[in-house]
């Protein structure tokens, strides 16, 4: 099915966030979920999370749900089948409670689900809802990254590894436990480590490393010649950092980005450097390189300067300058001071713009669908150029090109909204 693109401005509440708190009990499930069913489970939890322990049922527009997960928005047969699978899938937890006592439990992932009048309504059992909401034991699963996965085994491995990213390793799992986590327990075919490695481990590891924000490396423990246990070493994937940049927040509008492009740095690498190192650090190394005169390769030199933190050499004590030279130094310093002041002013303007756009996002989320559609049409009609209108249709209220117009528009609708 096509990977439908989502306009985030159509989403409200918890769905505007990128990550869902995924409790260990929910990650370790005994069912054999398909890729789309696993994605569906994550999105439903994200939608319900804020009211998980206070509301008995939760609801979401069915077409929005299908589109976020990656279904064709009209394919309700597949959506119904996936909801049925979640209701038939068992989650099992075995952990210590607050008093240190062992607690074991089992529940279906969904206690019920129904589709009516274009709305999906669903619920969790009270016991499972408490476990899903427990802030002490969860992983943060990025529901945007999960859209990159094309196999259920790859996504299952990502979910089970991501919560260990801070410790750097999953710890040892028996192969029996690993088969259960991958949903292939009970299969005689996968009792063979050769088949398990070739069909499950290697493809899933490859997909996690290619499609997600972590890089994992499997290690095996043997008893004699037989593999008995597996663990995964985990580190963050710096190549995915650039995907966290929201260009509508002005990444490509930054002066440092434009300066990097002027030095021949590619769009992708420029955004990656800004994401990894921050605007100030990259600008510092760019200024350093320019101060060195001609270099053989700007990209290569900058890469090394960022990696190895090149610093200017300490200048020897200067001799007394002539009045002319002193005046030239003074003028140079004045120019630098003016440039620094202009830079900090632009930085403050960007921060203020980002603050106001966050307020706009909150204002939009509070309006009903009819009001949001009317607001969009009214704003588009106020734009003069085709470029501005097309940019707004693509990025909605996050449009960096139209930021000033957006803030002015909402200032008229909500005169006190941006008051500090």
From TrEMBL:
Swiss-Prot/TrEMBL GO biological process terms: DNA replication initiation
GO molecular function: DNA-directed DNA polymerase activity
Domain (Initiator Rep protein WH1): residue spans on this chain: 19-161
Superkingdom of origin organism: Bacteria
Alphabetized InterPro entries for the sequence: Initiator_Rep_WH1 (IPR000525), WH-like_DNA-bd_sf (IPR036388), WH_DNA-bd_sf (IPR036390)
Family, per entry: Belongs to the initiator RepB protein family.
The protein's name in its UniProt record: RepB family plasmid replication initiator protein
Organism: Parasedimentitalea maritima
